Amino acid sequence: MLSSKVKDGKIAVVDALAFKEPKTKYMTEVLRAFTGILPEVSTRKTLIVVPDTNTNIIFAARNLQKTKVMRADSLNVNDLLTYRYMILLKESIEVIEKVYGGMKKPAAHEEVKAAKRVSAQKAVKAAPIKKMKKQEKKPVVKKTKKEVKKKA
Question: Which domains does the chain show, CATH number per domain?
Fold first, then answer.
């Protein structure tokens, strides 16, 4: 989900976000400042990801209906699907990598094809080669009941 949001350009990374007072007015100004980077960020659902519990940011955003503040170690797929845009603090990226970074990366498509080709080539070399003799098909002749009785 994070990769698709990055690919679609729906994530912005901020070096720092700090308020001297927890006021909603400050948070709306921050969201308006991001309209050049993330279009419709002030009117669409936006998820702000912080590295740790920052009460000023939480209190500043709690009165905004379409904005949610979440800690980086609490991310889940439901919130990633629900919120269209994400604003990440720079330190929260390190937390995300630490918490969720242990997953294996999928192999590139070309690498998978090459691995299949190599394994198929090895299988062909290892398989015993048997030459099949062509079997001649005999014509099927139906015998009547009288002919069968004569033989018996």
Answer: 2-100 (3.40.1370.10)
